[in-house]
Design a protein that fits this description.
Length: 81
């Protein structure tokens, strides 16, 4: 299952209706699964003086950039203090 390591979010199911379908009530497209934008990156943590590989969403990497790598990964439980 594809889950972000930092934010712990997964995929969602959303409706796949176009505006034309809504207007005519013809040929509904049904539901569609929407996946996260998961990326794999090697992140260096200066506090531990080592690098780790992480598979996280882009939103998770933005959170890590804002709050700092060490604090974010510590809160997510990916590293130990």
């Amino acid at each position: 299952m594809k889950i972000c390591a930092i934010t712990k979010k997964g995929s969602i199911v959303g409706g796949g209706y176009s505006n034309r379908t809504r207007a005519t009530k013809f040929n509904p497209t049904g539901k569609k699964r929407k996946y996260l934008n998961l990326q794999r990156k090697k992140v260096f943590i200066p506090e531990l003086n080592k690098s780790i590989n992480i598979e996280a969403s882009v939103q998770g990497f933005r959170t890590m950039k804002k709050r700092g790598a060490y604090a974010t990964l510590l809160k997510a439980g990916l590293i130990k203090a």
